[in-house]
Amino acid sequence: MNELLAIGIIRNALLTTLLAAAPMLIAATLVGIIVSILQAITQIREMTLTFVPKIVAVFLVTVIFFPWIMKLIGGFTEQLLAQLPALIR
User: Which of 27, 52, 66, 67 is the most buried (most CB within 10 A)?
Assistant: First the structure.
């Protein structure tokens, strides 16, 4: 296995990880911003108010995007297994 092949595998793994995590991260960020704005407007400083909506949003986004995430990870796994003979040499 040469360096270019290893770098390609690592690059694809990182890209797959970022793409799989992106929907949840974006949802948590947007909900966090909205809750922060609402807390600033109402001057409510309850710590649990920031976590519960984020957890619910991340859960819902995970359920919605689960088929796409599994297809993405499955495609990466198939690609990695197809390259297995070249990796063994």
Answer: 27
> Which residue type does 37 have?
I
> What is the rounded CA–CA span in Å between residue 87 and residue 89?
6
- φ, ψ of residue 45 to 5 degrees: the values are -115, 55
DSSP secondary structure letter of residue 4: H
pTM of the predicted structure, to 2 decimals:
0.81
Report DSSP state, residue 42: H
| Alpha-carbon span 11 to 5, nearest angstrom | 10
- Each residue's pLDDT, cut to its tens digit, for the chain (89 residues) gives 688 888 989 999 999 999 999 999 999 999 999 999 998 898 888 878 889 999 999 999 999 999 999 999 999 999 999 988 877 87
CB under 8 Å to 46, separation ≥6 — which residues?
39
